[in-house]
Design a protein that fits this description.
Structural class: alpha+beta
Number of strands: 15
Shape: elongated
Helix content: 40-55%
Distance between the termini: 117 Å
Length: 682
């Protein structure tokens, strides 16, 4: 072989994965595993009815292709979250499916590190961009990954949409507008709350034009207005062609009540104020002050970086509208601060903090000091029951630790923390500004650990109160199918939601007024006639093979399975193979789930004829019980304390089976009951 015959062989060029990409991927993996491990200690479902709705709609989506609650009709809630969590629920045993869904949720939430890093990298060094991603992942809000909720996917998709919005404002092109529109559409498909991205676009473009002193940057507003008009016309035409009716309910589905409120309430402004302060709590106040400093640098033209200008414009526009949107919603439907609807502001806070540090921690005292004063005032004035009570844990995870303190201690801690946050921003030397990120990241991590412990306790307590410690799948375990659940106002509605979720046997839920039932979303009414026959809204007698009722109802038919109240805080359930048509023979009101009562209890016997009501009373206080029938006093029932006596109360002589008899038991003390049984005369 001569030299001319030699061939130099070179390998194909290779692209090495950057250390930054590996670091971000590592953060995603570690966060996913940590949140998934924490979720194993949570009792799911917890947040009712949201988890039941998303879980069962997802199950139906994968099994039948319909957005329904296991065959029951439902308005539109979301499509992407049910699609994410529904696959394991449809393909696996329900308990195993929940665990796999939690893993997918943990991954979905942890992926927020990717758009957070990419956005922060445009404003700061690689190191600080990674820090922004890590701070975001440390927050307590990521515990929602342990539940069948929209929050995990919303956090990531909205952050990606906001990044796309910032890029479109920074360097306007048709392609970037399209990317933003695609992400905004995806965000709305996760949760309709994300529609706030559209007006945020308008305000952000205007703010960017003001900061840049360039009127030409307002041109995208005309472009978006044209697109919005076309989309509105297209949606309207589609709806009209589909069913001929265009209404808020048709477009918003289950979210229709959000826009149905009448009039402005003075509490709304206060609710918006407390939600604005909670945005500061999300990042422990320091990021809010840092972003205020960056905003002054941008609008005073001290920093001409278009990427920073776009970030500030998007952050101010989106967070302002988000606080307004969530505050108004919470004032009407929640009653306290709903932090879980604000968590999409979290990546913005982390990015702003790290960008501020990377740019030399500018003081900008002209704006930082007034904002700091407002935060301290809000910390001193906000009612603690808005953010730090056991009942608010489900919605406000970040300040949950304050619940362990007395009111005075919690107030002092809140005010002191806000003062310390401002002192760090204003007084710490610039070369030590990195400590601000360390303080925020570590404190959020500790808050995440504390809120995780509280969630473990709260979810276990809620599940025991609503269901007890017996297996929740009792109907499926009994081999029953095609069961109709009759719902009264006796039981906790959360217990009903859990019963439907865990039992595939339930194919229908019917409501007996005045019971109100948030779940299932659409529940037809039935009524009990005087003869006890259950009739539909059209007056037809109900005919069903299996009917499940609270233990307060007795049906004519055969008991096939029973779930006692046990250690729960609600009534037990009984499964019946009823006579045809379905007929209720008796109903009990006024008893506690364990059969005790104080004051009065009522037994209604339907189609009441000659017979005797047998009531076994356990003496608690030993006070006598007055027995009434249809308002007439018949007897005085004596049961000594600590003893049990079966009393007999005769039906009135006019009872002929054509109407109901009402038996009232009235006592000034406290008594228990075991057996309540009406036996017709032979």
């Amino acid at each position: 072989m001569t030299g001319s015959e030699t061939v130099e062989r070179r390998g194909a060029p290779t692209r090495r994965v950057s250390p930054a990409a590996l670091a971000v991927a590592g953060l995603v993996v570690v966060s996913t595993l940590v949140r998934f491990a924490a979720a194993h200690w949570f009792t799911t479902p917890w947040i009712a009815p949201d988890e039941m709705v998303y879980g069962l709609i997802g199950e139906s989506l994968w099994s039948s292709g319909a957005l329904e609650v296991r065959g029951l009709p439902s308005p539109y809630y979301s499509i992407l979250t049910p699609a994410l969590v529904g696959a394991p629920l449809a393909l696996l045993d329900l308990a195993d499916g929940v665990r796999w869904a939690q893993l997918l949720q943990a991954l979905a939430a942890s992926l927020v590190a990717v758009p957070t890093y990419r956005w922060a990298r445009r404003l700061a060094s690689t190191r600080w961009a990674i820090a922004a991603a890590a701070i975001t992942l440390a927050a307590p809000a990521l515990h929602y990954a342990g539940f069948l909720m929209t929050e995990p996917l919303t956090l990531t998709v909205v952050t990606a949409a906001l990044l796309a919005l910032a890029r479109a404002i920074e360097e306007p092109t048709t392609w970037r507008y399209g990317v933003f529109a695609a992400w905004a559409t995806a965000a709305a498909a996760v949760r309709l709350q994300a529609l706030v991205l559209l007006p945020a676009f308008l305000i952000a473009v205007a703010l960017d034009a003001v900061a840049a002193r360039e009127r030409s940057r307002l041109r995208p507003l005309a472009w978006l207005a044209g697109v919005a008009a076309l989309v509105t016309l297209a949606v309207g035409a589609f709806v009209v062609v589909g069913d001929g009716e265009l209404s808020a309910e048709t477009v918003l589905g289950a979210y229709t009540p959000i826009g149905a409120s009448s009039g402005v309430d003075s509490d709304w402004a206060v609710a918006v104020l407390w939600h604005a302060f909670d945005v500061a709590i999300l990042g422990l106040a320091i990021p809010v002050l840092a972003i205020a400093a960056l905003a002054l640098c941008v609008f005073a033209r001290r920093d001409h970086d278009p990427a920073l200008r776009a970030f500030v414009a998007v952050t101010l526009a989106y967070v302002t509208l988000l606080v307004l949107q969530v505050g108004l919603f919470a004032a009407e439907y929640v009653g306290h601060v709903a932090e879980r609807y604000l968590i999409t502001a979290l990546p913005l806070l982390a990015i702003g903090l790290c960008a501020w540090i990377a740019r030399g921690a500018p003081r900008a005292l002209a704006v930082v000091l007034p904002v700091w004063a407002l935060l301290v005032a809000a910390a001193a004035l906000i009612p603690l029951e808005q953010i730090a009570e056991r009942a608010t844990l489900v919605s406000t995870l970040t300040p949950a630790a304050l619940e362990a303190l007395s009111d005075g201690q919690a107030r002092a801690a809140l005010v002191a923390g806000t003062i310390l946050a401002g002192a760090i921003v204003v007084a710490v030397p610039r070369r030590w500004a990195w400590t601000a990120a360390a303080v925020v990241g570590v404190t959020l991590g500790l808050a995440s650990y504390d809120s995780g412990r509280r969630i473990v306790d709260a979810t276990a307590h809620e599940d025991r109160a609503a269901m007890g410690s017996a297996p929740p799948t009792w109907l499926d375990d009994a081999g029953l199918e095609d069961a109709t659940l009759l719902v009264t106002g006796d039981r906790l509605w959360t217990s009903t939601a859990r019963t439907v979720f865990w039992n595939h046997a339930i194919s229908e839920v019917l409501r007996i007024p005045p019971a109100a039932l948030p779940f299932p979303p659409v529940t037809p009414e039935v009524e009990i006639a005087d003869d006890g026959v259950v009739r539909t809204a059209t007056g037809d007698a109900l005919r069903r093979p299996v009917v499940v009722t609270p233990s307060t109802l007795t049906l004519a038919g055969e008991k096939v399975s029973e779930r006692p109240a046990g250690d729960s805080e609600t009534y037990g359930l009984t499964a019946w193979r009823p006579e045809v048509p379905v007929r209720i023979t008796s109903r009990v009101d006024g008893l506690l789930p364990n059969g005790d009562f104080g004051g009065s209890a009522r037994i209604t016997v339907y189609a009441c004829g000659p017979g005797t009501l047998y009531v076994t009373v356990i003496g608690k206080t030993g006070d006598p019980i007055r027995a009434y029938v249809d308002g007439f006093e018949l007897a005085l029932l004596e049961t000594p304390a600590g003893e049990a006596t079966t009393h007999e109360i005769e039906a009135p002589p006019y009872a002929n089976g054509s109407a109901s008899c009402i038996f009232d038991l009235v006592t000034e003390g406290f008594a228990g009951t075991t057996t309540i049984d009406f036996r017709p005369s032979s």
